[in-house]
Amino acid sequence: MTSSIPVGLLGALDPTSDRAVFRQIADQLREAIDKGRFKEGEKLPSEADLVEHYGVSRMTVRNSFSILQGEGLVHSEHGRGVFVRPRPPVRRLASDRFSRRHREQGKSAFIVEADAAGSKPEVDSLEVKEERASHDMSARLGSVRRVLARRRRYLLDGRPVEFATSYLPLDLARNTPIAQPNPGPGGIYARLEELGHHLDHFDEEIRARMPSPAEVKTLRLAAGVPVIHLIRTAYDTEGRAVEVCDTVMAADAYVLSYQLPAT
Amino acid sequence: MTSSIPVGLLGALDPTSDRAVFRQIADQLREAIDKGRFKEGEKLPSEADLVEHYGVSRMTVRNSFSILQGEGLVHSEHGRGVFVRPRPPVRRLASDRFSRRHREQGKSAFIVEADAAGSKPEVDSLEVKEERASHDMSARLGSVRRVLARRRRYLLDGRPVEFATSYLPLDLARNTPIAQPNPGPGGIYARLEELGHHLDHFDEEIRARMPSPAEVKTLRLAAGVPVIHLIRTAYDTEGRAVEVCDTVMAADAYVLSYQLPAT
DNA sequence: CAGTGGTCTAGACCACTGC
DNA sequence: CAGTGGTCTAGACCACTGT
């Protein structure tokens, strides 16, 4: 059987090059993807095809794929093939997403926004429980010992995109609607204000890193997809930290956007 | 020769487990690192050690290392060994970093801040040239055809941490100090204001992803380190976009921080 | 020099997919 | 069933590091 790779899509190796063979193959595949010769979702030549085309061993080809996988360019499906990873639709988080006017609706911001974007939103694995505050959380909340933790996972069209935990000082949240699985319209920020904790501002800290194995599982992350780790602290008008929300997001599903005054 | 791996640091494989051998080895190494049994910067057992300890082939061990490398937990040095990747000091970018008071100093914000943090700052590969605007840049700057591009790379203690390009409409920047390699105290934002473009606000868009091969080279990134891609647009009081700054940062070197009003 | 990781081969058997 | 990727072996030779 002759090679099933169309001529011109992939070139030949340069035996005089210092560059390792598997890197050269990865380079050629990457270039072909970048130039659109293999499109999103399209299947790449099989390992056997490439073994034949380049005259190398299978491990060499697999090494090339593993580079591209680490770059987040392709993903493999057992028994099916290796595919160009499609760019999923991204969720844009604007810096006014917690403004009061957004809280005046019955549904949560996540649901409203996803509906508007034509995606099917879901929230699952809701857990609300009292815990000992971690060292870091205690520092952020002002030497609090015990906290109410609200954990939930967000999905769009069946795909998990975000996992978030809110921590609130226990003395503030216990025996309030905040301790209910569903805190009601406007979410916990609306409830906090009703309880007299008028929100003044939020601090957000943003990091990016590769996910832990647990995060890979929870967010069903493909290889080569980092996470955005966002830690938001909400302060009331008296300067007290009333909530810390720790959020891990699939980086390929988000664009964060902020507006800064130029004063 | 008996194994050089201290007993207790690493366990045995579970032959009844469905989990692939190389994943089990990676799990054990990861756990040992997480628990501090191997500390930052410390050398892991050599491939040969692990081959002997687990009774597997070398490729199996290398597969384990490659998992940990993808997670950003370890890095290898040819001829020396595989090491636990140290967490480098991070640069904190606050959302008030462009406030006018920060512009009143003679040095750039980067230099001032790094000095304060006790790091040695450098700026290199400065390039200033006129270019055709990319499609995206043209849209951001309001249908501009040609731009002035200012490219530079930032280093801390010899390590590249950030690569940034500023784009300005050519009609605005040509024949001004902004087109000089060194635009003077306060940087180009101070010059823009002197030219009558009073800054009103900035928009920042944040993404995280794995780096391209070019970015790996420019930022000398280790395996398993994502980049933060920040696109900032500066608007003057007339609502005109006067600059777009496209920045790629080594994610392990940064924490971004924003303050949002709760209005 | 010995010890380390980097690259590569040529197989083997397995598990999953889709016809 | 054939075709695909997933795992694993047992070698080989090379390039780099440090003594």
From TrEMBL, chains A, B:
Alphabetical keyword list: DNA-binding, Transcription, Transcription regulation
Superkingdom classification of source: Bacteria
Alphabetized PROSITE patterns for the sequence: HTH_GNTR
SUPFAM superfamilies linked: Chorismate lyase-like, Winged helix' DNA-binding domain
Record-annotated HTH gntR-type domain positions: 19-87
Signal peptide: none
A Pfam family of this chain: UTRA
Protein name: GntR family transcriptional regulator
